[in-house]
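Quick one before lunch.
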Amino acid sequence: MNTIQPRVFSGVQPTGNLHLGNYLGAIKRFVALQDDHDCIYCVVDMHSITVQMVHEDLADQTREVTAAFLAAGIDPEKHIVFNQSRVPQHAELAWIFNCVARMGWLNRMTQFKEKAGKDRENASVGLFAYPTLMAADILAYRATHVPVGDDQKQHLELTRDIAQKFNNDFSDRIAELGVGVEMMVGEEKVNGFFPLTEPLIEGPAPRVMSLRDGTKKMSKSDPSDLSRINLTDDADTIAKKIRKAKTDPAPLPSEVEGLKERPEAENLVTIFAALAETSRSAVISDFGGRQFSDFKPALAELAVEKLAPIAAEMRRISGDRAYVDGILKRGGERAEAEAEQVMKVARKIIGLLRD
Ligand code: AQP
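Model of the adenosine-5'-tetraphosphate complex:
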């Protein structure tokens, strides 16, 4: 226990409508990281009940996100793929972190404010405590790196704050038990049990915006289906959504700087660059000065070329329910064994009596 191996953890909620933002901001990067990291990828079903408790199709949506992970190229043998609710240590550690985190910290979370909206009194306690469960998801494996979209930055900062407060509050016990590792907190070297996790937000499209409003992020819960490209959309639907995407009347600029103050144009160019695995300046050097009527069909063709094989593979994998369930079950067993090792020490540090 007194080393922390580099380890990647991330999760996606099974809330339906998995979209291009989830793919470019998260799943595509999960795939890239698996070549040289030990990775744990989780379908966070317990998070998905914080907004809507009753889901007729939660189990199928859990399978669909799993199928998306596999279709995108995640290897469930080399790495761990499972759904959160199979591993009770997440909820156990989340309770401990509820007692570490301060109300003031959670009160500052913008995602809670956005999701609770005006009716905050009626929001679930689970929605308020969402970030402590997310911290537990990560730290139950002492994960060191978390690839996420830009919208999760604040929650990852909170995860670091929780780890740091835990390490600090229990520093004597951690030293006494000899379970700490040395880590840097700012300029200071400290001995802690939980790592200060690094967010990995630097991908080419950390914040894909809505196709209907370039100032809002593309989101599963947007009531307009035209605002997002779903991973399950067929070629005609993708082409239609891109054709209808909001743009301004000017042609594309001849320099990347010209995208500033043009959120819709910037979003489409960013999506193109991320799908083509090139830079925005390369896209601008090809399309600068041209009209959206030229650019949109090229983007639609590229999106279909990249997404159609994933959608087809998702359909194929989803058709084999026993296979998907088997992956989640085996992944859950492996994850639980890992999380239990961490929890055993965490319980000892705190003084929770078990065996
Ligand atoms: N628009 C986005 N651009 C880039 N990354 C994104 N992510 C989400 N939206 C974008 C990233 O996808 C991962 C999984 O997200 P999630 O399912 O856990 O939750 P979310 O961020 O709440 O997703 P949505 O689609 O925006 O759902 P709703 O509508 O419920 O709020 C995360 O890494 C996230 O950053």
